[in-house]
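quick one, two chains, predict together pls
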Amino acid sequence: MTFAGAGSALAQTASTTAPNQKVRYIIGLDTIKANASGQLKLQEGVLHFATGKAESKVPISSIDDIFLGAETTQGGGKTGRVVKTAAMAAPFESGKALTILMRTKVDILTIAFHDPDGAAHGAIFALPKGQGETIRTQLIQAGAHSSPAAKEVSERSTP
Amino acid sequence: MSGRAIFVFLLTAASIVSAQNAAKPKLSASAIQIAMVEAGDVQIPAEFRYAVYERLVERVRTSGTFQKVYRMGDRTADGVPDLVILHTKVDTFKEGSQTERELVTVLGATKVDITASVTARDGRSLMDQKITGRVRFFGENLGVTNDLSKRITKLVRETF
């Protein structure tokens, strides 16, 4: 999704941030497959999310709100899911121990934005714990809008 | 049972089915706009609201029930005369725990109760129903949004 129409964003800060390597995209970007892993970075007033196969761009000026939550979920990605499914067949439900071993805390970053027609979108990402706040701060510094209510939500959320 | 009796029975059954269908005629609209999930006073994390909204847009689009599916705020929807709007309002939300669910099957379910309604441009109500979404056994808490959007889309498909 490239919103070239909201071009004023391109005139914003030319700063580039180091990409976050292990970001899992959950939903909200039309061109990216759900649960794809990729890199999230800010470059020249645009938030980029790129997997090996596809890329999506959101101009920072089109961001209406940024929410930060947290969740305890299963780590290990696709491999972890396969291993845990296989472990379900283990005797005496011993495979359940994997549930404890494989759990991990993540930040859930929700970015509410609009396209050139004014249509509302919400892109949701899962990031390693602690990185959500960093991205949020960088986005706000680059000019993204974030309401005080969104901050309250982020402070309330617990895994 | 004679052939005639079977014929009469089938004819009666067919007329009952057709009468039921006649009682619930499907509505017609070429386009739908999905409104953002309203939380009201219910404390629900933003990611749940946006995930329900995004999944609804995706599922209603895939269902092929409408020629066009618009998002909230889309100005191109302004000129569509027979546009209907899908509203969703959260009634209750209980966030469970994926770890609890997978260790002790009966605990840790995530549950969301929602009122889904469809209105015409003039505000006339065309559909109004309470729906519950759940994640009981495996999967992330956000999986509840998938269950919920699936149920709402099914309801919309049955209405239009």
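Chain B has four helices and five strands.
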